[in-house]
Amino acid sequence: MKINAKDVASGLLLILIAAVGLWLNGDHSLGSARRMGPGYMPMLVFWFQVVLGGIVLVMAFFNGPDPLEKWTGLDASMLVIAVIVGTLVGFAAPHLSSFFDNSYGSLGLGMLAGFLVVSYARGWRLLGFICAAMCAFCLLLEKGGLMLALAATIGIASMAEPEHRARPLGVLGITVFLLALCWWIFIKQLDIRVAVWPLQY
Amino acid sequence: MDILGNLAHGFSVALSFSNLLFALIGALIGTAIGVLPGIGPVATISLLLPITFGQPATTAIIMLAGIYYGAQYGGSTTAILLNLPGEISSVVTTLEGYKMARNGRAGAALATSALSSFFAGTVATVVVAGSGPLLTSVALSFGPADYFSLMLLGLIISAVLAQGSVIKSIGMVVFGVALGLVGTDVQTGQQRFTFGIPELSDGISFVALAMGMFGIAEIVLNLEKPEARSVLKTEVGSLWLTREEFRRATPSTLRGTLVGTVLGILPGGGAALSSFGSYMMERKVSKHRNLFGTGAIEGVAGPEAANNAAAQTSFIPLLTLGIPANAVMALMVGALIIQGIQPGPRMVEAQPDLFWGLIASMWIGNVMLLVINLPMIGMWVKLLQVPYKFLYPAILVFCCIGAYSVNNNVFDVYSTVLFAVFGYMCNKLKLEPAPMLIGFVLGPMMEEHLRRAMLLSRGDVMVFLERPISASMLAIGAIALIAMLLPNLRKGKEAALSG
């Protein structure tokens, strides 16, 4: 068998997305070809995507083999646990602390928890820490200010690189340098409207 | 001559202090990211897009354009000195350029690359200036059906020329179009696919999509690869060309410029395709083709001229028709739309400062790049010694602040995270993100033209075949698709894009 696993997954992904799209598109009136309603173009596009996904899927049985990267048991189980933990934290967030009571705070806290949990598995470590770092930025920015948010972002992001984990002082140096640089570019030069220090607003 | 008057106006715009400054900043950043492997122009431009919002539109586009063609200059430096292409477009430069460096002619190779790029850039600037207004007048006679077919053609060709499977690329284009439809329907005001999230009523944030799929996903992918950076062992040596080298490089530069100019205009074309096209051509027609593989100067001069010419002429479809030819141009469309300018044939008339100022600044930028690259080569080589582990935190924080500052809303940063995960997944499945970006930009425009065309034709689909312009666009698209399904051509493309 020469199955192209990447193409099987791609085809299924395209079909899945299109199916969800078509289902959501049920809310929109189609109109006629002459007077197209809001649902007409999405309908055309998603059906086309289903067809293409189908072709990719069928072709996958002839142009392989191209296996997916190996998942360890830990990779798979941590992904499931992360989704569960993330969802729970997301729902619990409003009751935890009023600090996260800002825009999309519960979403962010849930995502942060999920990404941090998934980072426990080696296969997800890089993606998990980088994404967690960005979520931390969002969570801290409005009430914690730019400096705190950036420090947290750099701190979490540096966990992705083994050499940084071994040298916390180096990370501190990078943090100080980047904080100064960002302050100079974004606050001094570009003057973006954002709180700089904790509890400024 | 009208063009001369317009160009003079363009130079007066481009020579203003702030425009000069930002052209220089663009050229410097472009060279830097060109030198550094792992950061490409698409990621950089999406990263810097938000910073340009505060600037006037002309200044913003001048800087972003500078990054794109600056990257073509910088990419060749590492290709020649370290056998490491900084950009995809300089992959072929490693073939002859690195050999030249091994033969002790590194300086000559660098000089050839910079000079032929400069020559090609100058010619391409003239081509853009001359053909822009001409094409614009043609474009004004386009009806909605013609526009729809033209965009369809652009999408097909961008998918056909993308790396990897054509069908998967078309799938990504289609998904991109679908993402472009999220938000308020222009004609009825109905919210589509917004899940009741107010931030989505204006559509998915362009910056979040580009930054996530290119910027952040690339960080993760770069960190996955073990860092392979050899230390410079070769001496740069004299930058002067011998008379013999100069004589050999000249015809190749001319041919490369021609190839690049033509391939750059094609939708889906661009720097990478044309540098390879030029290399293939040189290997067939050059007088010294027997020397190829041993450090032939023709193999540096041609492709370097071609990629720079193409980087500039790929602005033609954008400036005249409002259609992006590649992912970088899709970012430019995004930048223009956020600035409140609808790219299209009316832009030359309505925004003469932008159009002519950009053209003039391209030439000025090329002069700057010549200075930045040749005498300051040592500085760029030093930049290579900055390890990626120090670079990625900086890229990351710039992405965060950038995504936030577009609307001063953290929702955009969360969207960036989601697109980063999606982009990472696409990479693992060999789904190309670039066609998706182009589809995303063109999606809303296509819907509008499709609706208008069908309204005018009273629901008759045949309108797309009855209008000659539209019919010929569709025919070209069909031919391109069929051609790519032929096994021989497909192999040629794979060879071309993998270098």
Notes on the protein architecture:
- The complex is a heterodimer of chains A (201) and B (499).
- With 201 residues, chain A is mainly alpha-helical.
- Chain A folds into 2 domains: 5-59; 73-189, no CATH class.
- In chain A, 69% of the residues lie in helices and 0% in strands.
- Chain A is built from 7 helices and no strands.
- In chain A, helix 1 runs antiparallel to helix 2, helix 3 (73-96) runs antiparallel to helix 4 and helix 5 crosses helix 7.
- The longest helix of chain A is centred in the C-terminal third of the chain and has 34 residues, at 125-158.
- The N and C termini of chain A lie far apart (63 Å).
- Chain B has 499 residues and is mainly α.
- Chain B has one domain (2-498).
- Chain B has 23 helices and 2 strands.
- A two-stranded antiparallel ribbon of chain B has the order 1-2.
- In chain B, helix 2 (17-35) packs parallel to helix 4 (57-82).
- The longest helix of chain B has 34 residues, at 106-139.
- Chain B is globular.
- Chain B starts with a helix and ends with a helix.
- The model of chain B has no long low-confidence stretch (mean pLDDT 84).
- At the A-B interface, helix 1, helix 2, helix 4, helix 5 and helix 7 of A face helix 8, helix 9, helix 18, helix 19 and helix 20 of B.
